[in-house]
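User: structure tokens for this one?
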Amino acid sequence: MAPSCFKRNKSKPSLVKQNRTALKQRFCYGVGHVFNDLCIQAWFSYLLVYFQKVALISPTGTGYIFIASQITDAVSTPFIGYGCDKTISKFVARKYGNRKFWHFLGTILIAVSWPFIFAPCFACSPDSPEWVAVAYYGVLGSIFSVGWPMVEISHLSLMPIVAKRSKDVMELSAIR
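Assistant:
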């Protein structure tokens, strides 16, 4: 007779079939990024024309607005990435989770700055110099460029938390 260590184990295999991420969860994850993507597509495609043709800002002034926005994005992104992984407060972390809080905060910044980008310059008068409009839209663009990576980074960092299987991570990435 064979020793007990060589006996065949007739119990269930050790690998348990993992459940798939729920359809509702996948749908909500995909929708959670639509607002962000729509805004950034309009930012890089339409606003160049808008600032020059509607807001009547020179191409140089428009370039200053975009460079201010990109510098703000470059500076804020590492700090936002670091902040998403750190606990802001125990209450927020327990109730909502850090990533959801950053996502919500970024959504608020985008929602507040976005309509004013397409509104007439409130700080400008008909006889004010162009730099006033450039500064006004540059500040709004910078606020947008802090909110956008907040949503982007926090949303992408939710992917491994939401997914129940490694295959679901790829699917969530494709959905967003």
